[in-house]
Every structure is written in C-alpha cells, then in structure tokens.
C-alpha cells in the first residue's frame, strides 16, 4: 500500500470529529485566546503508553497555554471506547473520537490493524503530533509508526517557545 505523507508547511485540512459531549470540533480550528493549536493523534484506549502520554501532557497544559498553544487529542476509537478511556485519564483538554480511515490517510498517518480482538476492533493511527500556526499551516509535525517513538513533551514545549519568540524569526523547517 502506498501512502502520501503530510508535508510541513501545508495548510492543515478540514477534519471534523466529535467529543464525548457531542460537540463537533474542527481539529485545526484555532480559537481565541490561543493563536496556535497542537493536535495529538493517539492510538486509542487500548494503548497504555498513550494513556501515560496524554496524562503527561495535562501536567504541561498550562505551559502550552502560556505560549499561546491550545491542545486537542484524537483517535479512531468509538465514543464508547473513549468514554472507557476517559476513566483512566486525568485530562482537561478536549478529547475527540471517530477518526475515519480516510481522515487518517489524509493526514498521512501510519495505520495499523489490531493484533487481536482484545487489542481493539478497528484500524487505528499510530502516534502523531501536528502543531498548527496562526496561518493554519503545520509548523511542526511528528509521526511514528509505533507507540514507542514520540516527542518528549517538555522538549517540544521548549522548542515551540523558541519558535514562537519573534526575536528568533524561526521558519517552518523541512520544506526544501
């Protein structure tokens, strides 16, 4: 199977998902008081590393907000699976569910089939992060083909603070 990878500097596509409260959210939409947004794609409730990562992000959430970056996390899980996962999470940022295979492919994500029915019951995305700037372009992206390779959230925060500092005039990298 061939796959097109999402490119740094591209405009983040219009992808609509739902939250547990049945709110419909456009993943890339940036709302005041924030002017950037970080979309965290996670594997789903079956992944203990995702649970840990999402809970670690909550600890740093106010620091991300302080530099103007809002956060949302999303998976291909169903509403029921997200509701179950929520019981293991200590997060206050929005969690969304229901990414379709087409949406995951549009983002160029690595997709996996479950190893067994006990893991999950659907194709799911491997971890990814998209940081969208005020122009709606992807400033920073990270995609993995497995749960063990993800950016350190503190290092990412420090890097985004550096990028956001106008004195640094830091461009979108990897566009050559």
Automatic annotation (TrEMBL):
UniProt domain Thioredoxin: residue ranges: 6-162
Domain of life per record: Bacteria
A Pfam family recorded for this sequence: AhpC-TSA
Molecular function terms, GO-annotated: antioxidant activity; oxidoreductase activity
InterPro entries: AhpC/TSA, Thioredoxin-like_sf, Thioredoxin_domain
Record's protein name: Thiol-disulfide oxidoreductase
């Amino acid at each position: 199977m061939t796959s097109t990878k999402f490119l740094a500097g591209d405009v983040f596509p219009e992808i609509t998902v739902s939250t547990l409260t049945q709110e419909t959210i456009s993943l890339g939409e940036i709302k005041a008081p924030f002017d950037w947004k970080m979309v965290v794609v996670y594997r789903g409730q079956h992944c203990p590393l995702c649970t840990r990562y999402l809970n670690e992000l909550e600890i740093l959430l106010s620091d991300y907000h302080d530099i103007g970056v809002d956060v949302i996390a999303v998976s291909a899980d169903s509403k029921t699976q997200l509701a179950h996962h929520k019981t293991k999470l200590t997060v206050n940022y929005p969690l969304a569910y229901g990414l379709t295979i087409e949406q995951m492919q549009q983002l160029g994500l690595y997709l996996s089939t479950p190893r067994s029915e006990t893991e999950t019951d659907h194709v799911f995305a491997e971890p990814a992060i998209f940081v969208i700037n005020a122009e709606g372009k992807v400033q920073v992206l990270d995609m993995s083909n497995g749960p063990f390779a993800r950016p350190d959230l503190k290092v990412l925060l420090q890097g985004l603070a550096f990028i956001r500092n106008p004195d640094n005039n830091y461009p979108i990298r990897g566009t050559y």
